[in-house]
Specification:
The chain has about 170 residues and is of the alpha/beta class. The protein is about 50% helix and about 25% strand. Strand 4, helix 2 and strand 5 form a beta-alpha-beta unit. The two termini are about 20 Å apart.
């Protein structure tokens, strides 16, 4: 059994979702979103995100983490901010002994929907179905984080089967 933390990084909104993966079964445990305000200093915002996620990994005994990586950004300034958040989260996970796997948006869409050009609603609805939830998690950043966690369990399961020669 593993407890996976999925993360959808962003400076204003960082979604997170925790799920349990056991014998091919996925069970959502809890999810949410860290929201920071634009008027706050960058260091404070990034610190808030990292410390909140550190509380999450300790509260839910997280064993692994997955995060959506930056693949393409129209706004360079936004991409740099997200990269800073990813760096802070990566470091926090490292010092807490949590393995991190990064997945591109294309990998997440392909794993969840089976189609790399799927839109956000399709990904979120499929994640809801795969996790046996009554409704799509809200806010959408939390749904995206759960999708990253589901993707990780799929990749890990495939790697495990390949290494066993199945």
């Amino acid at each position: 059994m593993s407890i996976v933390l999925g993360i959808d990084p962003g400076l204003a909104n960082t979604g997170w979702g925790v799920l349990e993966s056991s014998s091919g079964r996925l069970k959502p445990i809890f999810y949410g979103c860290v929201i920071t305000e634009a008027h706050e200093p960058m260091q404070q915002r990034i610190g808030c995100i990292a410390s909140t996620l550190e509380q999450v990994i300790k509260r839910y005994d997280v064993t692994e983490a997955s995060m959506e990586d930056i693949f393409f950004a129209k706004n360079a300034s936004s991409a740099i901010s997200v990269a800073k958040v990813i760096g802070a989260i990566s470091y926090m996970l490292f010092i807490n002994g949590i393995k991190l796997s990064l997945y591109t948006p294309l990998q997440i869409k392909s794993a969840i929907v089976g189609y790399g050009n799927a839109d956000k609603r399709q990904v979120q609805e499929m994640a809801r179905i795969l996790l046996g939830m009554d409704k799509v998690p809200s806010p959408n950043h939390a749904a995206d984080a759960l999708s990253a966690a589901v993707t990780h369990t799929f990749f890990e399961s495939t790697q495990s089967r390949l290494s066993l020669g199945m």
